[in-house]
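Example complex used in Figure S2.
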Amino acid sequence: MKKVAKKYSQVMNFLRTPTPTLIGIYIVMLIFFSLSSKNFLTIQNMKGVFNSFAVFGIMAAGVAVVMIGGGFDLSVGSAAGLAGIVSAVLLMKGIELSTPYVFVIAIVIGCLVGLINGLIIVKVGINPIITTLGTLAIFRGICYFWADLCPRIYNVFVQNFGRKYIGGVFPVTTIYIIVAFAIITLIFKFTRFGRDLFTVGGNENLARLAGIPVDRIKIISYMISGFFAAIAGLLLISQLGSGRPEYGTGAELEIITIVVLGGVAVGGGKGNFLGVFIALVIIQTISNGMVLIDLPVFLRMVVKGALLVLVIAIDAIRSKRHLLRY
Amino acid sequence: MAENGSVGISKKRHFKINNTAILFLVLAGLFIIASYVGRPFFFSKLNLIPMVNNLSFIGIVAAVLTMVMVTGEIDFSIGGNIGLTACLTALLLAKGLPGWVVVVIALAAGAAMGAFNGMVVTVIGVNSMIATIGTMFIWRGIGYTLTNGESILAMNPVIDFIGRGFIFKVIPFPIVLLVIVFVITYVVMNHSKWGRKIYAIGSNPLASFLSGINVKKVKFISFLICGITASLGGLILTSLTAVGMPQHGQGLELLIISAIILGGTALGGGKGTILGTLAGVFILSILYNFLTIMNVYYFYIQIVQGTVLILVVSAYEIKQMMIRRRT
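Predicted assembly (653 residues):
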C-alpha cells in the first residue's frame, strides 16, 4: 500500500513538472511538420536532426547547471568557439599535436573560461548577465587572434568524433548527449554537490547559513558549463571540418530558450534535466522544421527571439513573479 | 546625533560630486593624450566631426537608457531597435514618402517597440535582462526580413539633415539633438516629480509602491521613451551612413551600457546621474576612436569593450564593498 502511494506521488510529481506538456508539444509539432513537409519524417532528415542535438544539447546541459544554481551564462558560445579554434590550430599541419593533448587543452580552456566567469561573478559580486556579456565579447575577440589561419581538420579521430554514424544510421553524438545528461542527472540525484547547488539556487542566504560553501559551489557550476562548452567546441570543429573564429556566435539565444523551456527557473533552484533534454529536441526540431517548410532565413531569427520571449513569459507566469512586481 | 547625521550627508554629497568630477578629469586627460599620441589625425576636422556625430547618437540613446536603468530595469534591445528603424526608414523613403512623414513613422515604430518591451516587463513581470535579449533578436530579425538582408540607400533632404546637417553652418545637427535630449533628461531627472519617482522606484520598489507611486506605469513609460530615443538614434545613424541596413547598431548595447555604468549608474537601480552618463559616453567614444586611429583591429577593440564593461562594474562593486566594510 505504501509502495503504491509512493509510486502515485512520484507520478503526480512528474506530472506537475513541465515535462508532460513538453512531450505533448513535441507530438503536436511532429504531426504538424510531417504534414507540412514530406521530407521531415525521413531517415536522412532525422539523421541530421539527431546530429544537430549535440552541440546545443551539451552547451544547454552546462547552462542548465549554472541556472539551477541561480547564475546565468551567456558566454558559452564564445567559450565553445575559443576551445574549438585553439584545438583546430593545434591540430593544424605543422603543429599536429596528438589528439589526447588537444582534448585536454580544449577542456582546460573551457574550465578556465568558467573559472574566470565564476570568480568575477562570485568574488566581485557582479550581476552574472552583465559579467558573461562582457566575457562573451572578450573570448570572441580572442578567437579572432587566429582569424587568418582557417585551419582544416585532417585528424581522423577528431573528424569521426562528431560525424560518425553507428551502422550508418545512428549518430554517435546522440550517445554523448545521452551520457552527458545521464551523468548530470545522476550527479544531481545522488551527490552532495547536486543537492547543494539546488539549495544555493533556491535561497543563497539560507544555503550560506546552513554551512554550504556557496562560493565554491557556484564557481564549480560555471566551470562545469565551461567544460561542456569546450566539448561542444570540439564537436563544432569536428562537424564543420575546420576551425573558424565565429563558430558558436549567437548560440546563447537558443541555449537560454532551451534551458528555460525545459523548466529551469530563471532565478534558479528549480529544474530537471529530462525537461531540458525534451526542450532541446523541441527547439532543434523547430529549427529543422523551419528549414523544411522553407521559412525565409531572416524570419527564423524573429521566430527564435519570439520563442525566447514567450518561454520566459511562461516562466514568469508559472512562478507567479508578476504578483511580486508592483 | 543630528550633527553627526548632517556631517555624514555632506560628506556623501561631497563624494558624489567628486565622482563625476573624476570622470570629467579622466575625460580631459584622455582627450589630451589622444590628441598628442594620435596626432595629427585625432585632432583634425576629418576625425572630430564624425566622432562627435557618432557620439551624439550614442549619447541620445544612453541618456534615456540611464532613466530605464535607474528604475532598476535594463534594455538590451536598443541595438536591434536602431537596426529596425534604419531599415524601416530606408524602405519608406524608397517608397517615396516625404521625409518628415518617415521620421514620424520611424519614431512611432520606436515607441511601439519600447511599449512592447515595457508590456512584457511590467505586465507579465519578466526579467528585463532576458526579455530584451529576446526582443533584440526579434527587432533585428524583422529588420533583416523587411530588407531581405540588403542595404538600402536612404537619401532625402530631411533625413540627410538629421545626421549631417549643420546649424549656422558650424554646429552639427546631431550635437544639437544631443544637447536637447540631455537638457530635457537632466531637468526631468533632477528637477521634476517624475525624476524623483524614478529614483525612488530604483532604490526601493516596495516602498515606492506603498507610498502610492504607480511603479508599473513609471517603468512602462521609461521603456516607451527609451524606444523612441533609440529610434531617433537609428534615424541619425541612417542619415550618417546614408543607408539603411539591418546590421546597424549591432553590438551597440555593450558600448552604451558600459558607458552608462561608467557614469555611475548602478545595475540594481536607484543610482545614476545624467551628467555621469554624458561623461561615460564621451570617455568611451574617445577611447574607441583613439584605438581605431592607433590602428587596432576591430576584434581587439571588442576585447577591450568587454574588459572595460567588467572592469567598470567591478570597480563600482568593489567601492561599494569598501564603503560597506567601513560602516
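Chain A has a mean pLDDT of 86. The CA atoms of residues 237 and 243 of chain A lie 5 Å apart.
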